[in-house]
């Protein structure tokens, strides 16, 4: 049904265009029709890569490639759809095919490195990024460079790449959160706390950053929830995170109180917190 609708739309556009070009040559009409079809194809590709179900998009691009295997836009579409569908192994193979295409761009290598990281192949990702010309300075390139440096515990390089990535986007919340987590893993709790606060200031709905902020504060034995916007469910979950941090630090009585607060705050039954409180009581009872 979808395919019939698309064909109908294309034919309708073509007929309308041909009617408007009554005084032109056949060659000019054919060229104009080709441009309309190409525009319709591009629009459909965009839909498949944004709002369509990832698995449906994979099927769509595989079908397109079966008919036109050399089209790099279809190859990219398949590779991106496989990433969205969380099919890492297939995505890596698809991006390798794109990179090997004669019309490949440096950004395709960056996307290959992204797929390799998602597949846990950090060394391969580093090699691919090293092969990207230094003149290619994009947000995604530096975000991935930072992640690779993190994995190698090259902290100075990681900080440099994170800082550069932040400066290359108007929506830095996720990369600030990643940078904060990097600092948290190194034991730089105060710096981590500041980065999580910055991340939340750019995206107040980024719960991961809120949770990480509570972890950073808890590592400094500060279990009071930060003054940030949160829903009732988020508040209960953050109290639970603070409770676990307190117990981990040996502040068991504080942890028990925070667990009780989490259970009473949650609008539904908070099974995870209830189990943790029972386990804590059985160990200390």
TrEMBL record:
Extent of the signal sequence: 1-18
Highest taxon, organism lineage: Bacteria
Gene3D superfamilies: Tetratricopeptide repeat domain (1.25.40.10)
Record's keyword terms, sorted: Signal
InterPro entries per UniProt: TPR-like_helical_dom_sf
Organism annotation: Actibacterium mucosum KCTC 23349
Protein name, as recorded: Tetratrico peptide repeat group 5 domain-containing protein
Cell membrane is among the record's keywords: no
